Give the backbone structure.
Amino acid sequence: MVEGMFIDTMVNMNWTEIQSYVDQNAWVLLPVGVIEEHGPHLCLGTDIYTAHLHCLAIKQKIEASGRKVVIAPPFYWGVCQSTGGFIGSFRVRKETAVALLVDILTSLAGFGFKQIYGINAHGDIEQNIVLIEAFKEASERLAIRAGYPFSEAVMPHYGLKGDEAYICPVKPQAVRVSASTVPDVHAGDIETATMHHHYPHLVDVEKAKILPPVTLDDDRIMTWLFGGHTKSLSADGYLGAPAAFDRVEVLRNINDIAERVSEAILAHGLKT
């Protein structure tokens, strides 16, 4: 049985199958995440499993428009700046992550793929900078259309306008999928529910049910995101309400993300 983040990706294909996708001018989705702590109840691979799940849903949306899509091998050596002080959060240097991503994009371009999109499920500030820099370099140096779907709401904080050749502006979520009043910043109800729905054996449900909500003021959330003080802000390494996972509309959430991201990718990919 094939399980996990390699399902329906290039990892499980032979080279002739990849060639057939090239011949069909397929667009590539690259799942991006990290290996990091996600509280005492979730596995280290939560972000990359989630990115893969998003890619599967986005693939369906884009293919419904008549475009062929293939999912690249998941990239999980991103930057864990915010949770880097915890055991389990692998510390990869920013320049290493950028270089590796550019090498992967260069390989895909060398195979003959012309349109490649990075689907990121890790919200670390440094991680976003890594993706912006890598897709910018690939867009400028390689003869491909490389795009990073990125939330319109935070683009200004990164000096982006949305008209950059390597950025696909994504509209903010307008539907409510969680009953919790405590936002899921990291390993809260939505991430817990997503993993429990798709990979229940990777969730310590009994532990999740007894975890109290943890929330921070906006300025302290920024302290969390910039890293270095996470244990003092949350000793168990989560921000949110994991115990409320059974009140999350998981499939509605994934479908909404897929709708908004696929819309951004199609707008970018069809731009003349």
